[in-house]
């Protein structure tokens, strides 16, 4: 029974890791997806939150997952909050910067501004 449980847990962990690291498929404008931090944020997306998950394979509690939001296709005038850990797409401008505890992407990063309010301008 122990071998079965170990095998089941290993398969479940591998499936979760694949689900977290897979690129978002055909996301609608404004959709939010969770991915492992080791996966590059695709063009047209911004990071909106950072966290920790054992399914992304680290032994410490440093941030290793991120939520990313699809900005492509959102109407002009839309305002979103985004982490400063990625560049925002062309057509968007930062209207404010601030500190957000949900945008801490690196341990011991202090309380410096790490997030933006973005507005779609074109």
Could you walk me through the main structural features you see in this protein, from its secondary elements to its overall organization?
- With about 120 residues, the protein is of the alpha+beta class.
- It has one domain (about 30-120).
- Helices cover about 15% and strands about 30% of the residues.
- The protein has one helix and six strands.
- The protein has one helix at about 1-20; strands at about 30-35, 45-50, 65-70, 80-85, 90-100, 115-120.
- It has a three-stranded antiparallel sheet with strand order 1-3-2. A three-stranded antiparallel sheet has the order 4-6-5, with no helix packed on it.
- The radius of gyration is 17 Å and the shape is flat.
Short description:
Keywords: Signal. This protein has one helix at 2-21, and strands at residues 32-36, 45-51, 65-70, 79-83, 92-98, 115-120.
């Amino acid at each position: 029974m122990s071998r079965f449980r170990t095998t089941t847990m290993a398969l479940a962990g591998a499936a979760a890791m694949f689900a977290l690291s897979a690129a978002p498929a055909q996301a609608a404008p404004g959709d939010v997806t969770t991915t492992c931090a080791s996966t590059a944020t695709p063009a047209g997306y911004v990071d909106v939150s950072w966290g920790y998950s054992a399914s992304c394979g680290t032994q410490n509690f440093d941030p290793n997952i991120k939520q990313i939001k699809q900005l492509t296709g959102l109407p002009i005038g839309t305002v979103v909050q985004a982490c400063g850990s990625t560049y925002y797409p062309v057509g968007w401008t930062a209207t404010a910067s601030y500190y957000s505890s949900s945008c801490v992407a690196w341990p011991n990063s202090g309380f410096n501004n790490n997030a933006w309010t973005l507005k779609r301008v074109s």
